[in-house]
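Protein modeling request. Please complete all fields; requests missing the sequence field cannot be processed.
Requester role: graduate student
Desired output: 3D structure, token encoding
Chains: 1
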Amino acid sequence: MGKPVLAAFTSFDEQPFASGSIAQMHRATDAHGRPLAVKVRHPNVVERIQTDFALMTLLADFSARMPGLRWLNLKSSVSQFSTTMVAQTRLDIEAEHLRRFGWNFGTSGWQDVRFPRVLDGGSHAVLLETFEPGELVSTYTIDKIVGGGSGGATLPRRVARFVVTRGEDLYLKMLLVDNLMHADLHPGNILLHAPPHADPTLVLIDAGMVARLRPIESKNFIGFLQAVGAGDGAQAARAVLGFSDHQTCEDRDEFTTDMAEFFRTSCRGYFTGVEFGQVLRGVLGLVRKHRVALDANYMTLVMNVLCLEGMARALLPDYNVLDAARPLLTAHKRLPAPVFRVALPLIFSFKKMCDKFEGRGEK
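Delivered output (363 residues):
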């Protein structure tokens, strides 16, 4: 920024309130009295990441020469992941991600979901953003997801339903409309602001990693979700086989047969009690068995769905994320893309009405 810290801020907490692998967060106040979050990149982190990925690339090259490991497609995955991680060290790129997400969710229908606002004065190593109040959703999920228990902090059921349903909404919007996915969409990156006498809001933070989805990637993954909703294992298999530009599955017919059998016993479609996370884990088991290659963006989409399903299971165990997604997935399948975009507010309103109907009487 070119200024001493005390000259840039009226106050600056030298002790970070959060720290990750790339940077740490400090609380500060600007000359207008606004509370800020200042993200500062760790020293030498770029050089360390470059060294790590140089070593990973050597291992990936070795695996590509081994017949038993070639199907893992590690070279492509390391290349994609290294590009993402190096970009994450550029905090000016994260600032651009935040601006884009703010634009995508800046319409009237999304006033209860927001992203920190980027302020002037940042650089490739420093990010200035608004300090957003709230508690991490992981405060309410970590004990239940990791420990498998029922203890820990709890939310009123009405607020828990808001977190889960709105979390699913924003994931579906990123996938179905924006083609820009927050690549680290777990409860530790979602803030809940729930004042006693006001409507709750969600704030998504840490936008350093994103998945920019190509049209074919969106089409394939949406097709997979629609196949799960239809209980069609053969169609799901065809979608999954498209999850890599360099597919390594040696027997596609056998993979399709196994997927069809798995769906026959474990996934019969909407409103049959499908546990979406269990289905995904079963599909990944077949992916490993048949050495089906999955490119990095698809794995981001899968991991985000698993995070969403895990959050729902922890906060609202009777909520079925697959059934709740049906209005949007069905409309996306049946409507031409321009009509779907125009009708999207109405479709989300219908989904919201269904969610409220399912949660009637909650406090």
